[in-house]
């Protein structure tokens, strides 16, 4: 794993967005793996800015998101589909049909997970996968004890994750779904390049464990040490325990 420490969250977002923009310019038909959460809002803000300034053409890109909640009503403002539409897809030039998320409202979640894996495979795999890190050390929604070989599947969210993500549900932890569909750790590790983005002092301890601690399925992010091309882009606040 390579690690770059930038001054602040803005510089982290700018560098991450620049990497994505450069890939889209070099390979207009690239396959992007995308993530959600507050950290990524800034990344997408920067990417939208670069896209407008430099006329980026996303029309041939395809995107696959890491995860989606299970059990939200269709069109929920809290779904990751809505998040992605608002923060990125409606603000760049990408056909919405090229943007994929697992369908958390599918009647048969096992079939949906298999369909999602198959769609990634048929797209030729993911060129660049963005990942954040949760306070449980999860990537995607791969909570502690997710096998490193795991594939897209239905997972029960850890209480700490629901608490952390309650901020995006107006602070109401009871409104945060109990379950999600997530790419597995094994699915994520198949991306050709992985970019881990982390900012803010609240995650300093888990980032240090992910980067410097022993590899363990208790912290899914440590699986990234098995990947040949992972770049962590972090700010000084989150790097303080390294
Ligand atoms: C959710 C997502 C994760 C993301 C995490 C971090 O749990 N499923 O993929 O890494 O949020 O969120 P934030 O950036 O808001 O701290």
TrEMBL record:
SUPFAM superfamilies: NagB/RpiA/CoA transferase-like (SSF100950). It comes from the Bacteria. Residues 11-224 form the Glucosamine/galactosamine-6-phosphate isomerase domain. GO terms for biological process: carbohydrate metabolic process; glucosamine catabolic process; N-acetylglucosamine catabolic process; N-acetylneuraminate catabolic process. Pfam families: Glucosamine_iso. One of its GO terms (molecular function) is glucosamine-6-phosphate deaminase activity. InterPro entries: Glc/Gal-6P_isomerase, Glucosamine6P_isomerase, NagB/RpiA_transferase-like. One of its GO terms (cellular component) is cytoplasm. It is an enzyme of class 3 (hydrolase). Signal peptide: none annotated. Its EC number is 3.5.99.6. Coiled coil: none annotated. Keywords: Hydrolase. NCBIfam families: nagB. This is Glucosamine-6-phosphate deaminase. It comes from Gluconacetobacter tumulisoli. The lineage of its organism: Bacteria, Pseudomonadati, Pseudomonadota, Alphaproteobacteria, Acetobacterales.
């Amino acid at each position: 794993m390579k690690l770059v420490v930038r001054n602040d969250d803005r510089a982290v977002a700018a560098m991450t967005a620049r990497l994505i923009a450069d890939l889209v310019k070099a390979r207009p038909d690239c396959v992007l793996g995308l993530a959600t959460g507050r950290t990524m809002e800034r990344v997408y803000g920067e990417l939208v800015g670069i896209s407008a300034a430099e006329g980026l053409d996303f029309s041939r890109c395809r995107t696959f998101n890491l995860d989606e909640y299970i059990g939200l009503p269709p069109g929920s403002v809290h779904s990751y589909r809505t998040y992605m539409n608002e923060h990125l897809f409606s603000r760049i030039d990408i056909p919405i049909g090229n943007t994929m998320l697992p369908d958390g409202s599918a009647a048969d979640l096992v079939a949906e997970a298999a369909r999602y894996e198959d769609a990634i495979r048929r797209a030729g795999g993911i060129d660049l996968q963005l990942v954040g890190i949760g306070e449980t050390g999860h990537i995607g929604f791969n909570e502690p004890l997710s096998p490193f070989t795991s594939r897209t599947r239905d997972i029960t969210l850890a209480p700490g994750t629901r608490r952390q993500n309650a901020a995006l549900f107006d602070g109401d932890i009871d409104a945060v779904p109990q379950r999600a569909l997530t790419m597995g750790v094994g699915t994520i590790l198949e991306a050709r390049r992985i970019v881990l983005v982390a900012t803010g002092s609240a995650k300093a301890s888990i980032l240090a464990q992910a980067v410097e601690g022993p590899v363990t399925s208790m912290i899914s992010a440590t699986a990234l040490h098995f990947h040949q091309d992972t770049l962590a882009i972090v700010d000084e606040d989150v790097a303080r325990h390294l």
